[in-house]
Amino acid sequence: MAGIIGIVSLKGELLFKEEKMLNRMLDILKTNKKQIYELYRDLYVFCATVLPLSSSEPDHLIINEELEIVLALEGYIFIPKEMKNELNTIYSTLNKNNDYEYIPYLYKKYGNKILEIINGSYNLFLYDKKSGKCLLANDRFGFYPLYYYYNNKYLIFSSKIEGILSSGYMSKIEFDNVTIAEHLFFGYPITDNTYIKDVFTLPNATLLEIEYGKMKQSKYWQIGNDYNTSHLSKNQSFEAINFALDNAIKKYSSLSNKIAFSITGGWDTRVVLSYLMPDYRDQLYCYSFGSLDSLDIIVPQLITKAENLQYTPYILDNQYLERNFLTEAKNTIELSSGTRNYKRTHYLYTIKNLAIHSKYLLSGIFGDEVLKYGRPKGGTVINENAIAMITSNFSSELVGQNYANSPIFEIPVFSNLQCLKDFKYRIDRVKCLFEDYDQLQDKYLAFRFEINLRKYFGNEASSYNDYFLCLSPFIDYEFIKTWLTTIYAGNLFPFKKPSLKTKQLSIELYTKLVMNNYPSLSVYPSTRGFSIADYLSLKGKLKIFYLKYIKKSKYSVDAFFTRDTDSIFYNNLLKNIPSEIKYINNIPKESYFSSDILSLTYWINTIKERYL
User: Fold this and answer.
1) pLDDT value at residue 378
2) CA-angle at 19, arms to 14 and 23, nearest 5°
3) Is the pLDDT of residue 132 over 70?
4) pTM of structure
């Protein structure tokens, strides 16, 4: 459970009496005793960082004696080169070995405006010892979840819910059934409530200031700040995206001389790989996972062999199920604070094996969301209920009706009138977040970047940050800022049926990006049955049209065709669950949320056993 953790006294209550509690919180954040950790504490503030197992040096806790500033950081931050040069000139004593050493100086010069200068995916805590002021903040997209709880004496924050629960500072621990209902209905909680009452997640682009015992919360950015209705032409859009992707990928590649790279049979990682070839070839440790005969194994093997790339396939077979699945299923659920279900187990299993090679994972996550053009379709990342909510302009009445007509409402604990009332109230709160956007497609864009990105992909990345940090050029702020000026953002996913011409825009963009950077990658097949190069010939275009729109060929998303994980998980982990939390007894047959509720049932029981 790598990340950050801390306590701030709000009313001058001393922390020195709480040694055991502080140590317990720190221990909870460590998955392995070998993990590097750093901590700072005085009479009123405690903060600590726990680094991924792949990290060899402590570098995420900065104690600047000169400025009397303490900084605790989770994730990674990029500081503009011109800013570092400026500070090097001003401060002759500046330590240049660690980029994060610059942050206290940036804070001294720019104050809270520092959040508009730095980029990356991070949570940070800054303590100004001179003034006693504390800041708790995250990046623009709030990629890594940060949980917090406060009462009249203390503010407690942690990268994992259990860091707060283990503190002993909560007078009462209660489960929040409305948040669980949100998760089951939308695939994840869309509000910043959590499964535990009074514990919240910090909204994206949020600054929480603590001064003189008072807390002030503000939002320093929203995607509408960088969005406009005037967009580049088609050719200009391509040039802008190509340039911004190149910069983002080079920036990430500079972080380490060895980077794990997720290569699949899809097009998003193919685009990223085209920028890495050939200059960064030797830095890459490529991998993929799936059943032995799946295209997510066959296609990467074909590419990496032909291009002479280091590659390891991780085969998900019955041996994996028998030896590893149950242990890693529990870890997946617990390390994600209950947000990920056991269907994601193979991600963690694979990643644990990769951590010995690199402290960073480079992938193409969120590529679909920025490169593809067309009407949104419900799926795993954003489901039909979420799309229907946006289509209704966040009408709590219509969403509440859909909820009441869903299989979730057949489960007694989620079907009482108070639960329905609270559920609808939360939809009204979400609606308020997007009132500044006039068009539905703009509301959709804002929802994807400010809620869906962190609630789905961010929780995923957080579940394996004990092993390494996840990088994707498609969530790089500088890239997104450029992308927002292009036609691909200007009419993103209109809520009407798109024409064949608009559908082809995505294929054309993928093709041009790969052909411009490393053309040989275009000839390899994908999991969809056609290659990028097929777009370049009439015969190939007819093939694509046939496969996508006539045959509508199916392919495996998880490439995992072994024994039934549902029965394995249930029979081994849930058969002894106390009856009072067995939501599973009431699950309608073949419900789309069955794996989520099975996993949440396991997590709730685990929390009850540990803390109640």
Assistant:
1) 84
2) 130
3) yes
4) 0.94
Reduced to 3 states (helix: H, G, I; strand: E, B; else coil), residue 154 is strand
**Rounded Cα–Cα distance for residues 360 and 258 (Å):** 8
CB-based contact 400:424 (threshold 8 Å): yes
Q: What pLDDT, on the 0 to 100 scale, is given for residue 256?
A: 87
Residue 496 has pLDDT above 80, yes or no: no
Average pLDDT score, the chain: 88
DSSP symbols for 455-517: IIIIHHHHHTTTT-EEE-GGG-HHHHHHHTTSHHHHT-S-SSPPPHHHHHHHHHHHHHHHHHH
Question: CB burial class (10 A; 0-12, 13-18, 19+) of residue 257?
Answer: exposed
Structural domains of the chain in order of their starting residue, each with its CATH number: 3-176+197-221 (3.60.20.10), 395-433 (no CATH)
Strands 119-128 and 69-78: antiparallel
Task: Give the DSSP letter string of 250-285.
Answer: HHHHTT-S-EEEE--SSSHHHHHHHHHTTTTGGGEE
Report whether pLDDT(452) > 90.
yes
Nearest-angstrom CA–CA distance, 2 and 464 = 9
In angstroms, rounded to a whole number, what is the distance separating the alpha carbons of residues 237 and 284? 29
Check whether the bond before 473 is cis (ω within 30° of 0): no
Quote the strand ranges of 12-105, DSSP E: 37-41, 45-50, 61-64, 69-78
Of all helices (H) and strands (E), which one includes residue 9?
A: strand 3-9
Whole-number Cα distances in Å, 425 to 191, 420, 431: 11, 9, 10
* pLDDT tens digits, one per residue of 358-382: 889 999 999 988 887 767 778 889 9
Residue 163 · residue 147 · CB < 8 Å: yes
**Pair 173, 611: CB distance under 8 Å:** yes
Q: Which residue has the higher pLDDT, 292 or 564?
A: 292
DSSP 436: T
Q: Which amino acid is at 158?
A: S
Work out the percent of the chain whose per-residue pLDDT is above 90.
59
Positive or negative: CA dihedral 472, 477, 479, 480: positive
Average pLDDT over residues 92-107: 82
State the first-to-last Cα distance of the chain, in angstroms, to the nearest integer.
21
Separation CA 307–CA 300 (nearest Å): 10
Residue 558 pLDDT greater than 70, yes or no = no
Q: Is 109 helix (H, G, I), strand (E, B) or coil?
A: helix
Q: How far apart (Å, rounded) are the C-alpha atoms in residues 301 and 264?
A: 10
